[in-house]
Amino acid sequence: MERRQLEYFVAVAEETSFTRAARRERVAQPAVSAQIQRLERAVGQPLLHRSAGPVRLTSAGEALLPHARAALAALRDGQSAVDEVTGLLRGVVAIGTVTAHPVEIARLMADFIADHPAIEMTLVADASDALVDKLADGRLDVAIVSIGVDEGPPGLDFEVITDESIEAAVAPRHALGRRKVLRLDELCDHPVISLPVGTGLRSRFDTACAAAGLRPHIAFEASSPVELVEMARYGLGVAVLPQSMARGRTNLHAMPVSPELRGRLVWAWRRDRTNPAARRFCERARRMIASGVAVAPVS
């Protein structure tokens, strides 16, 4: 097995597409197909189901994937260890974020690359659940994710960015437009506007409803809290939002929910991280976040 074969195999498995894998690896698609065919000959088994629609792994492919990721991670760590000894910091730092957060991530990246120009950085946005999974299996080095106030994802350490209430928000003309506090069961009597399943805020809301034996009617979902704000302003329902997004907006009335819902945004990383570049970037980001230098209000 060769490094390039494993890289292309992992890319196809994660992208579920030869075309997207080739784009990600910055090569022509035939090169990806050829290398994976060589890998299949080396292991003596087909690794992928090639058919219309998303590419799927065979049982042999499923068995190989975690070992391929581990082998590539070991190669990267070996190169990083040599670079660290020689004083050269290079490699790739993979960062993930939720769609709305107060961290000036572009500023952090630009400052770090200015000091370490040999570093490559990638940035993806996704739901919290997906980001935690990618941290756990090594696809990401660090991520900004939402968790509950009493949660600690296994295998991860984190620095708290924000810790705030989750509130309900409606247009002033809404039937709830004069309420000061809204009980959770009352909220569930109205159409709810929420982030989708897999996001941290939605997990906090769904968990609270399940514990109270409530089944909310999720009328609308949107991937960004800003979109939730707009739908609530136009009277489409009750938006479930972080307090910082719900308060201080024209044409929007915010209410605390009883019992209180709270959530945290955190800067998270693998406890056993070995990538020197990612470790250095994470340490710098933590210092800047703790000092407030790289944190701005969410608009």
UniProtKB/TrEMBL annotation:
<dbReference type="Pfam" id="PF03466">
    <property type="entry name" value="LysR_substrate"/>
</dbReference>
<dbReference type="Pfam" id="PF00126">
    <property type="entry name" value="HTH_1"/>
</dbReference>
<dbReference type="InterPro" id="IPR050950">
    <property type="entry name" value="HTH-type_LysR_regulators"/>
</dbReference>
<feature type="domain" description="HTH lysR-type">
    <location>
        <begin position="1"/>
        <end position="58"/>
    </location>
</feature>
<dbReference type="InterPro" id="IPR005119">
    <property type="entry name" value="LysR_subst-bd"/>
</dbReference>
<keyword id="KW-0805">Transcription regulation</keyword>
<dbReference type="GO" id="GO:0003677">
    <property type="term" value="F:DNA binding"/>
</dbReference>
<dbReference type="InterPro" id="IPR036388">
    <property type="entry name" value="WH-like_DNA-bd_sf"/>
</dbReference>
<dbReference type="InterPro" id="IPR036390">
    <property type="entry name" value="WH_DNA-bd_sf"/>
</dbReference>
<comment type="similarity">
    <text>Belongs to the LysR transcriptional regulatory family.</text>
</comment>
<comment type="function">
    <text>Required for the induction the katG gene for catalase. Involved in the response to hydrogen peroxide.</text>
</comment>
<keyword id="KW-0238">DNA-binding</keyword>
<dbReference type="GO" id="GO:0005829">
    <property type="term" value="C:cytosol"/>
</dbReference>
<keyword id="KW-0804">Transcription</keyword>
<dbReference type="GO" id="GO:0003700">
    <property type="term" value="F:DNA-binding transcription factor activity"/>
</dbReference>
<protein>
    <recommendedName>
        <fullName>Probable hydrogen peroxide-inducible genes activator</fullName>
    </recommendedName>
</protein>
<dbReference type="InterPro" id="IPR000847">
    <property type="entry name" value="LysR_HTH_N"/>
</dbReference>
